[in-house]
Amino acid sequence: xxxxxxxxxxxxxxxxxxxxxxxxxxxxxxxxxxxxxxxxxxxxxxxxxxxxxxxxxxxxxxxxxxxxxxxxxxxxxxxxxxxxxxxxxxxxxxxxxxxxxxxxxxxxxxxxxxxxxxxxxxxxxxxxxxxxxxxxxxxxxxxxxxxxxxxxx
Length: 153
Fold this sequence. Notes:
Layout: H1 2-59, H2 69-86, E1 90-97, H3 100-104, E2 112-119, H4 126-142, E3 148-152
Parallel strand pairs: 2-3
Antiparallel strand pairs: 1-2
């Protein structure tokens, strides 16, 4: 009976040892997989973060934080496409501070001239739309400044 018990006990301990080896193997493999994934994902996350920073630097003016012309044209083209698809109006304003040099020479009297173009639909080029708004702006300046000129396109 003692022999049978010791045989059963040795079989049980053998199974326990085998299970322990399997458990340790699973833990080791899990650790290797997690470490490998972390080593692969961390640089990717850093790259994406730096990509966002670089994109922001490439598309924004560092002093004002406003979109630069390239980014502005890209965003504007999206709005223009939406306006054309929805057959809705879109306005572009060209604004210029009159006699801006005087502002830099710390004088506070300020006036602005604005050219507004109303786009109904038909053009897919933001630069054309802005050129027409610019014509309205210069017409406002020729008419004595400090006014708004609205034009249809």
